[in-house]
Amino acid sequence: MHLLSINDLIVRFRTHDGTVYAVNGVSFDLDEGETIGLVGESGCGKSVTNLAVMRLLPRPAGRIDGGEVVFEGQDLLTLDESEMRDLRGKEIAMIFQDPMTSLNPVLTIQEQMVETIQAHRRVSKSEARVRTLELLGMVGIPQPEARLKNFPHQFSGGMRQRVMIAMALALEPKLLIADEPTTALDVTIQAQVLELLSRLAAEHGTAVILITHDLGVVAGMTQRIYVMYAGYVVEAAVTRDLFARPRHPYTVGLLHSIPRLDAQPGEPLIPIEGAPPDLRHAPVGCQFAPRCAWRQDRCWQEMPPLDLVDPNRDFVATGPQATHRAACWNQPTPEEAVAARPLRSGFEPAPPPAEAGS
Amino acid sequence: MSEMSEMSGQTIVPASGIPGQTAAALPSARPLVEITDLRMYFPITQGILISRHVGDVRAVDGISLSIQRGETVGLVGESGCGKSTVGRTILRLYRPTSGRIVFDGQDITTAEGASLRAVRRGMQMIFQDPYASLDPRMTAAGIVSEPLEIHEVGVKSERHQRVRDLLATVGLDPSYGDRFPHEFSGGQRQRIGVARALALHPDLIVADEPISALDVSIQAQIINLLERLQSEFGLTYLFIAHDLSVVRHISDRIAVMYLGRIVETAGSRELYERPLHPYAVALLSAVPIPDPLVEGRRRRIILSGDVPSPSNPPSGCHFHTRCWLRERLGNPDRCVAEDPALRALSAGHQVACHFAEEVDGSAEQVQVTGRSPGAGGVAAAPVLATPTAPAGPPPRPRDRG
What we know:
The complex is a heterodimer of chains A (358) and B (401). Chain A has 358 residues and is of the alpha/beta class. Chain A is built from 12 helices and 12 strands. In chain A, helix 7 packs parallel to helix 8 (187-204). Chain B is of the alpha/beta class. Chain B is built from 14 helices and 12 strands. In chain B, the strands form 2 sheets. Chain B has an 8-stranded mixed sheet with strand order 6-7-8-3-9-10-12-11, sandwiched between helices. Chain B has a 4-stranded antiparallel sheet with strand order 2-1-4-5. In chain B, a hairpin with a 2-residue loop joins strand 9 (253-258) and strand 10. Chains A and B meet through helix 8, helix 9, helix 10, helix 11 and helix 12 of A and helix 7, helix 8, helix 9, helix 10 and helix 11 of B.
């Protein structure tokens, strides 16, 4: 049994402008102690997926329209609010991009952390305080005794994110969801926080879902990666496999469009032309088709399933043997992935169908 | 103040050592921009009725930099290091506390009024936030034509045509000119910002984090656009960013800043291959590389603590409080007592560290062998970078076994 298994999750938002198709059938699994990456651009549904796991979608607009979220054998979508509240923080914790807005500005660090601990554990205030001190020391806050009475604004960005990590790990959750935990931080501080996060997760055996737009961050941190685009998982693979043999045109495009620190001088960037789709339109066909150099006629009509790249292998969902899957009718070959364009002679990307009118 | 005297000699050698740089090939060419010992202090005041001057935020604390015509100079550093202030001071959006700014042979340090406005035609800025830097109540065409109107360029019909040309130049459909900023995506908005910066045929464009607010798949579009425009119009860029990979990609030369000072400057390839300042080494090692094979082999220097406040910078070398090299050398007092001057260790490579000779930047860095073939292995050679005999230990992802 997996620690977490998300099956065909569908999330929609009802807004004044119509329905937003935020997550359109996302499935993934996670085992205990694993770290996986969820990669994609803003609006690809990576954060919404995890808010749905925590049942923290903004209400009344956000709505889970289908699927299940099975955590330790229990479908979280069937729990009532008080059961869910019990679970949050204790079993599944979350840290957000901006530590300033996720800490309460009018409470001291001690007050917030003691409150968190006492909400879930039957301990006295002084016991909770001892635990708080221990946690702050663990995340490397200098002189934790002196900082207990400080307010969030008295901490720097990196220190605040450390406090957030301390709070998230206070109850030793089995799963930690880190949503862009270092995006607001400087590179050297990012390195500190990532190092801390991976060390603590390993020590406590915590499973981590790392949500980020930065392929560099997931390359060094995760065992497996799910690439998302417009509410779909378009490619899933073991981290090394994904970088060595990307099989979805979007992944290929992403890898070629970011400058690498170790690139050869003069190595050109190959951008992905166009922009991500408007999620207010019901998805038809592959959502990446308008930007894809490999598209065929059917890509405009049918969304390809997330299928095994190598059909001869048996499907393994998690762990280091997890099978490489991609949702693409016309997968780039390894040579094409290197060149970032189709190499077959005479191949032209299929024009949009006439009736779609563009 | 004793530290003032230490800061002389921070002059950056022109980019003579950079191959493939056409503009720098002309040795007699005077730099387009030359700043000397520039300081920009922002006063900290206290009191409501009578405000007392109680200190300064030393955003820029004595830097010298020259930018050749046609060159791209990258200015990197973490937030609060003063890199944006340098850019804004060069454009004379601030009046510098001291120092000298020479633009195209003209001293503009204290220029004002009409003469400043005239100078500003030659220098433009691209801002970080494509949402905040465009007036939401103006159309795209109105935004792009505003600089033309301010400087009274041409008659109305000529301006109209120029705006259409500019929009086409940056890859926007000229018929979109009637639309308002909210009707564009982030990448398109940044294109409008670029078109506005180009309107007056500037010589210098200061690009302050022009892509960091954009989505990953859009960033490359804007980088490529900026590179194309540079070769088309012979532009000179001061490219300010925190992302070293981007800066390295676009720049001919890079200056690394820390707490208001330039700590190292070198050709971009040289800086990456042989960083000499302990801060630059740490900064480079902290940048994640999107390749698990490389990541698994890298040594990462984790700096302890945060950047000190620029209102009360540490004495001597500003970096000494976090320096890993100083620790390794047994915490020599010289770092605390004495400001390191920027000195040349090789042609075009300058560093402000007393012990730069002890830094073996290449040893601290990645071994660039055996990259994942799929991950941007578009090396110049058509042959696939086959990892025949991988140097070093077998790559091991940093997992928990």
